[in-house]
Each structure stands twice: as structure tokens, then as C-alpha cells.
Amino acid sequence: MKEENQHIGKVILAGAGPGDPELLTVKALRYLQKADVVITDRLVSDVILQEYVRKDALIIPVGKQCSKGASTPQSDINDLLVEHANRGKLVVRLKGGDASIFSNILDELRTLAAHGIPYEIIPGVTAALGAAAYAGIPLTARGYSTAVRFLTYYKKEALHESYWKDLAQTDDTLVFYMSSDPLDQLVEKLLQYGIGADKWLAVIEQATTPLQNVYNCPIHDYLPAARGSHYTSPTLIIIGKVAALQVPFQWMASSGSKENYFAPVAPKAADNTLKRYVYADSAEA
């Protein structure tokens, strides 16, 4: 090993869960209590950052919010991981949900490997599992579904026409991440290819948080009743026979609120640098 890397640090890529801070794993909690630096996504509860992180740790928000200009470029995040690890720091890269589901973990893994930086990956409760559980929907249930597909639909060209036909005809439970904006088009596609009248659609806003809302109906009824609806981010969509089970098995009432549990991404500073926060005095502040 080169001399300059003798005191190299380590990066922990950890999932924070979908919102409820108590869904954080014990292993992730232990690393947060030891970390020198926490580089955190937007979809991480403030409770985790304020109560579970070591009090003198440096906390760097690197939120992304669709294509909004305030989002942190992935290249900046990669640079931060290298910068602090090369200073001998224990860095926790904290991601909403699970670290490996619809995240840019591959870019970060490639960066760490290229620089010879040791790392660990700690799984978290992904949004699909958290949202389904807190809505009262078993993603697989005997007689309803034996498989689950995690998907995303962010533009019309994202899925091939033959795949749309397969999605419409399958009895698998379909879970769509980051797909609330084009939801009308998504439903139209499934209807076009003959999705059954026994399939339901559940839209879950801000899952597992005190501001969770669930909207649920047979998929054939969605467009007449809710076309053009806008939902509070983050939103997860569950489609399939199992979504109808939310009606008898809902255990958490919808909040009815449209407030944001997760703060929007803050605008960049005038000098285009990331703003860095600490919750207590830090030698790196």
C-alpha cells in the first residue's frame, strides 16, 4: 500500500429505511454513532441525523430531487467520499430506504474501488417493504400473488411495448418507485394492454412517516376518479390483486396532510459549494 494511504479511512454505504427512524438497522445505528462524517440523502429522517449521529460528526447533505437544479451531482458525492476517506475518516454514506435499490450505489462503489478505499454495504428497509407494511398490504399472499417486481417509470420510452403487455397480464405485484408524475400514462398503458378488473392500485405518500397517506381503488376506476392528481414526494405505487387487501387490513390511518416530512433540497450556495452542517462543535466545521 502506498504511504499516503496508510491512514486511509473507510466508507459505510447504509440504508436509513423509508422514513420512520425506528426502522434503521442496529448495525447502521452503531456506525452512525462512530462516524466522523455522514453524507446523507434528502429522504432520511431528521430524527436520525439529530439524535442518532455522533454529536461532533460532520453532516453533509447531498440531496437529489428529480431533475431540479438544486440536486447534488453524483460526481460531487463521489468526490466527498474520496476526500474524507483519504483523510482517515470513518464515513457513512446514508441513503434513504435500502442502499442498493434505485440508488446510485454503483457509481460510488466504482469510485471507492478505483481509489482503494475500503467499504461495507449495510442493507436497509426499502420503500416497497416499508410502504406495503405500513399500508397493510402483503406484497405476496396465497391466492393473490407469488412474486413482486420493483420498477420505475419516469418517461414513456423507459419500458418496451412488449414489456407493458407482460406487466398488464402478470399476477405479480408491481411496485413502482419515482413514478407518480407520469401515473396517468402508466395506468393508461396497463389498461391498453388489458390489465384485469380485479387489480387494484394503491398510491402511498411519505410512507412510514406521520404524514403517510394512502389512496386506493380498482385500477379501472383510477383515471375517472383521480386523473391529473399530484402527490407529495416520496410516493410509491403498488398495483395488483394484493392492493385490495389494504381496505380490510389498514392499521395506520392516513394523515390527510400535504406537508413535507422530508425537507426539499436546499438551493446551492452562491459559490456553488455544498453547505455543510454540524449539530455540535466540530474540528472540521
Q: Can you give me a brief rundown of this structure?
A:
This protein has nine helices and eleven strands.
Architecture overview:
- By secondary structure, the chain is α/β, with parallel strands linked by helices.
- The chain has two domains: 3-125 and 263-278, Cobalt-precorrin-4 Transmethylase, domain 1, CATH 3.40.1010; 127-249, Tetrapyrrole methylase, C-terminal domain (Methyltransferase, Cobalt-precorrin-4 Transmethylase, Domain 2), CATH 3.30.950.
- It is 27% helix and 19% strand.
- The chain has helices at residues 26-34, 46-52, 74-85, 105-114, 127-135, 161-169, 183-192, 219-226, 246-249; strands at residues 10-15, 37-40, 58-61, 90-95, 119-122, 148-152, 173-177, 200-205, 213-218, 235-240, 277-278.
- The strands form two sheets. It has a six-stranded mixed β-sheet, sandwiched between helices. The protein has a five-stranded mixed β-sheet with strand order 6-7-10-8-9.
- β6 (148-152), α6 and β7 (173-177) form a beta-alpha-beta unit.
- α7 crosses α8.
- The chain is elongated, with a radius of gyration of 20 Å.
